[in-house]
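DM between two lab members

TW: hey, do you still have the DNA polymerase III subunit epsilon entry open?
JB: yeah, one sec
JB: this one, 263 aa:
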Amino acid sequence: MSKRTITDMNDLAQSEQLLKTLESAPQQTSETALSKSWLLGFDTETTGARPGRDAIVSATLVLRDPEGGHAKDVLGEWIINPHRHMSPGASKVNGFTDDYLQKHGIEPEDALESITQVIASAQNNNIPLLAYNAPFDVAMLQHDLGQWKLDSLESRITNDNILVVDPLVIDRAVSHRSSKRTLSYTTEYYGVEPDGDFHNATADTVAAVDLIQPMTTLYPQIGHLTIGELMAWQQHAHSVWKDSFNQWLVSKGRRPIHDGWFE
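TW: and the structure you got?
JB:
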């Protein structure tokens, strides 16, 4: 088996395997280059698209050793009973139904605690959390933790702020192509072969993590970015993109957007 996929383990075993691997990972510093960095991929499927009103129903973490690639990936997958209804639109996209989640989903407190422990352990080792359009997934996690009265991610980490890699923000900054920026279009552009169907948390997580190798190869300035430089660089890149996008929106008579990127 090329990957240590642990979906057949119980919730506790999944988090223990990930935590054990993190303990053996080298201690990264602010000088570690992105191209050489371990990464913890993260993706969710949800009841809808509104953090605070919707909830996570499926989540995947993929721990990637840059020297081992896929062969050393450690995966954890969680199906969660959100105790709220799936929206028809979300159900059509991700395939989850209320009946399935009630029968097969684990309790949110257990899943969210396990997921957050792993993310916090990675953060405290300067291993970035990687997610495509990361503000959405992180916001969903933060709101769900609050909903179930669990300790926040920020309270568990020693860094001042969460350390994130967002391939969407990076791609917007370096690739001046005209095609769409969805995960499926972006992976096709960079020659990444999907491992499963998109809108599946595991397939999406692996695909997003796989983007880093071609990005850092095609654009050496990205590969040379250090862990200590990542957040400020991405915040600036998002700000530049937002200003340009808002100019286009206004020219079309549409409202500008105001969302920041982990600011």
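TW: got it. Residues 29 and 126 are 6 Å apart (CA to CA). The chain has eleven helices and six strands.
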